Amino acid sequence: MFKYSLDNKRYHTLNYHYKTKFKTKVMKVSLNGGFTCPNIDGTKGVGGCIYCSKTGSGEFGGNVNDSLLEQFDKIKNVMNKKWQGKYIAYFQARSNTYAPVSVLKAKIEPFLNVKDVIGITLATRCDAISDEVLNYLTWLNGQTNLTIELGLQTIHKTTSELINRCHSLLEFENMVNLLRKNNIEVVVHIINGLPYEDEKMMLDTVKYLNKLDIQGIKIHMLNIIKDTKLEELYNKEKFHILTKEEYIDIVIKQLELLDEKIVIHRISADPDPATLVAPSWLLKKFCVLNDIDKEMARRNTYQGINKYF
User: Fold this and answer.
1) Looking at residue 109, what DSSP letter applies?
2) 159 and 195 in contact (C-beta within 8 Å)?
3) Which residues contact 152 (CB under 8 A, 6 or more apart)?
4) Would you say 159 and 202 are in contact if contact means Cβ atoms under 8 Å apart?
5) What whole-number distance in Å separates Cα of residue 46 and Cα of residue 116?
6) Cβ of 204: how many Cβ atoms within 10 Å?
7) Strand 86-91 to strand 117-124: parallel, antiparallel, or no bridges (unpaired)?
8) How far, in Å, CA of 173 to CA of 273, rounded?
């Protein structure tokens, strides 16, 4: 029987991972540090990825007009109405290593002294970590439970160019290896349903990642939001958007390929109803999650069953 059963799931959930590691409920508090990206500011490209809002609306994390500690307190107080436990300061919006070390220290290090914060997670890109920043992250990893989330989205060059990632697969792999050489945990983001990708391409992305030394993965469904280049492309070309059934089938096949030690941080998107263009079925997040569970049980399958194939 599949051993990761704390949540009655057939895959290695983040909740199981946190409760096993920290012996308590752990909540991620999403923060907006006001960072940018090298494919936004002109260093590697402009405008960001095609699914990023051109106005900056729809950003993840707290209100960027509040200080980071204010953001943390506001979100934590909401969470405390439902849960009690420890916290991870999650720098989520844009690329949270894309700044001089002095800026990173000023934004990150106050959380080393915040009560009940037991870890820091930084979402970023492989080309947004300089040698100096890598040295700082290595130090930071010795002070707290540090996780670096690297956006990849796809291994396929044609898709990567279409969505304006502006980095190569080799850059990504080299950064994973550097982070792991310094014993820093790595979580990778991928997106299912990117324009013109078929099932084989999405499965190939997971097969590639399964060969790397990564500790976690986030699987998203592509969501088209207002005021993006992706919306313009969709309105013009009406490329196929995965149905809920297609998405569930692909996710299950991806989970079957992934080593059971890899933690599944997310298997669905969580879009803002006010800005979502498509697909509308994403708005029923818990229905998607429940349907994945039911279908995995029906197939009597689990994470890692096909990891060697």
Assistant:
1) G
2) yes
3) 126, 172, 188, 189, 190, 205, 209
4) no
5) 39
6) 16
7) parallel
8) 35
Q: Is the distance from CB of 306 to CB of 256 less than 8 angstroms?
A: yes
Q: Is-contact 10 301, C-beta < 8 A?
A: yes
Model confidence over 145-186: pLDDT tens digits?
A: 999 999 999 999 999 999 999 999 999 999 999 999 999 999
Domains present along the chain, CATH in parentheses: 14-299 (3.20.20.70)
Place of tokens 């005021």: 227
User: What b/e string do you get for 20-45 counting C-beta neighbours within 10 Å, with b at 16 or more?
Assistant: eeeeeebbbbbbbbbbbbbbbeeebb
Torsion sign across C-alpha atoms 50, 56, 59, 61: positive
Structure tokens at 91: 């720098």
Total-model pTM: 0.95
Look up residue 226 and give its two tokens: 């207002």
Which pLDDT score is estimated for 62? 81
